[in-house]
Design a protein that fits this description.
This protein is mostly helical. 87% of the residues lie in helices and 0% in strands.
Length: 347
């Protein structure tokens, strides 16, 4: 029987490593809100960086500061316009939609056929009314507490300003930090790592900007179609479709179902038109928009995309599902690079 002797120094190193990793995990948990701000700023910077880099070519002395300021100012202008234009009707229409939800379910309950039987057997009307009461009571409670309202407002403003400030400085200082990082590597290894990082960067920017663009198009077209058909709550329903469209593969379908239910109560014709619209738009998005905006940046099988989205959604909701795809694509590129390097070393 063989016996192994472990030196006290080795045990100490193992315990120190375990303690260090445990402390890092604990610290990340304590700073999870701030880390979420940094992560949101990073992905926002990734989405804006191609525009900053492109515009810098036409600035005096190729100034990245000027291009960053111009892109950021345009971004803030568009964001302010959207908030000013859509926030009041969004809040009003969302409130009305909450109030009308039990009535919608009640109409289904009194309808004939298997749908009405399903609603009656599962007591969906009572559940919808309970959910409505909970939402309205929470809203009323939040509105009754002046201190709570002020605290929530300042917290949201602080978070937004922090994310925007981080995004601005990430865009501004990206070249300097990148140069400092590559200076740590020897020139013989630097080229290979730069090619790897460039591939990961293309995958991330291609997905982030592409997904945001297609989701914005889906939201705008849906809201426009609903407004033309005089379906109520066009703005919040369009935003719901845009948010769900961030989810790969199944997101747009989930958003379309909520729209079709509301459109059905307006008129069967409106619901039929919206159904045709969603079928046609899905074909255009899947076969035209996504290949154009993604290009060759994301090369992942549908199964891998779905698994990554499910795991990301379970960890971080819609935001987790959104960032899981580019992270998985980057990991895939990294693994392929490692395998290629090992293959070259053996040959």
């Amino acid at each position: 029987m063989q016996t192994f002797q472990v030196e006290n120094r080795t045990i100490f190193r193992i315990l120190t490593a375990i303690a260090g990793y445990s402390f890092i995990i604990f610290l990340a948990y304590l700073l999870r809100r701030e880390l979420a701000w940094v992560g949101a700023a990073f992905f926002l910077a990734v989405a804006l960086d191609p525009a900053v880099t492109y515009l810098a070519k036409y600035m005096p002395r190729r100034s990245r500061g000027l291009s960053t300021g111009a892109v950021f100012a345009l971004f803030l202008l568009v964001l302010s316009f959207l908030v000013y234009s859509f926030l009041p009707p969004l809040m009003n229409q969302t409130r009305e939609l909450i109030k009308r939800t039990p009535a919608y379910v009640d109409e289904i309950q009194h309808a004939g056929g298997p749908v009405g039987d399903f609603v009656r057997s599962n007591e969906l009307v009572d559940k919808a009314k309970e959910a409505q009461s909970d939402i309205l009571s929470q809203a009323g409670g939040a509105g009754g507490s002046v201190v709570g309202v002020i605290k929530n407002i300042f917290s949201g403003v602080a978070a937004s300003l922090t994310v925007l400030a981080l995004t601005f400085f990430m865009l501004l200082e990206a070249p300097q930090w990148t140069a400092r990082f590559w200076a740590l590597y020897a020139p013989t290894r630097r080229t290979s790592y730069q090619k790897l990082s460039a591939a990961m960067y293309r995958a991330m920017t291609g997905y982030v900007t592409g997904n945001l663009l297609t989701s914005l198009i889906a939201a705008a077209l849906t809201a426009g179609m609903l407004a033309v058909l005089r379906v109520p709550y066009a703005i919040p329903l369009g935003i719901v479709v845009g948010i769900f469209d961030l989810l790969p593969l199944i997101g747009a379908t989930l958003g379309a179902l909520s729209v079709l239910i509301v459109a059905l109560f307006t008129s069967p014709t409106a619901a039929l038109v919206m159904l045709v619209f969603f079928v046609l738009y899905q074909q255009v998005e899947n076969h035209i928009l996504q290949p154009i905006v993604y290009g060759r940046t994301i090369r992942m099988s549908p199964l891998l995309v779905l698994v990554a989205a499910i795991l990301g959604a379970s960890l971080g909701g819609i935001l987790g599902a959104f960032v899981a795809i580019p992270i998985t694509a980057s990991i895939k590129i990294l693994i392929a690079h490692i395998l290629e390097e090992r293959s070259k070393a053996k040959s």
